[in-house]
TrEMBL record:
It comes from Candidatus Cryptobacteroides gallistercoris. This is DJ-1/PfpI family protein. One of its GO terms (cellular component) is cytoplasm. It comes from the Bacteria. SUPFAM superfamilies: Class I glutamine amidotransferase-like.
Length: 191
């Protein structure tokens, strides 16, 4: 699917969503926020309501599903039960699989690398990170688990948790727009 999208489900971790959105938009990525529901309002794991750019129905009507490349992104914040709610959305998981198989970039942080990206085939030998306690599901799939704050392996980018959300966003930005752009954004936010 062409473009860059972040998907919100009730129970998403607010910091893991907002930090990458901020970093990517500062870097010139036209990242669009998608609620997986008919309603655009989604509530985070700490009770903070957020309004997405589009509902899931609007996303399905507007998304260009053909011509996926490495510069196209599907991003999944962590949080519980947000990650399990994302993983339970069959149509979203079907689109993620197609996106990944066609060479699109997938990124997930916290529980989402295990709960959401763990549904992808062919993860054996891939280096990934996730929130502590969620690594057994990845290890069962033959993933090389690391406790690094951010791990990038081809078109898979993963983050460990909220404390790494800005670094995670910067890694995605470097992947999409180059290291120079990511360095410029990092400098602008005093990193």
């Amino acid at each position: 699917m062409k473009g860059a999208y972040i998907f919100f489900a009730n129970g998403f971790e607010e910091t893991e969503a907002l930090a990458p959105i901020d970093v990517l938009r500062r870097g010139g990525v036209d990242l669009r926020i998608v609620s997986i529901y008919d309603d655009r309002t989604v509530t985070g794991s700490h009770g903070i309501p957020m309004v997405a750019d589009m509902s899931f129905g609007e996303f399905l009507e507007r998304a260009e599903l053909e011509g996926t490349a490495a510069g196209d992104l599907m991003l999944f914040p962590g949080g519980m039960p947000g990650s399990t709610n994302l993983a339970a959305c069959d149509k979203l998981m079907e689109l993620m699989l197609r996106h990944y198989e066609e060479g699109g970039t997938v990124a997930a942080i916290c529980a989402a690398p295990s709960v959401v990206l763990g549904k992808l085939p062919g993860l054996e030998g891939k280096t990934m990170t996730c929130y502590d306690g969620f690594e057994p599901a990845l290890l069962e799939k033959g993933v090389k688990y690391t406790k690094d704050g951010v791990a990038e392996d081809g078109n898979i980018i993963t983050g460990r948790g909220a404390g790494h959300a800005i670094s995670f966003g910067l890694a995605i930005l470097a992947h999409l727009k180059g290291k120079e752009t990511a360095d410029k954004v990092a400098k602008s936010i005093m990193l």
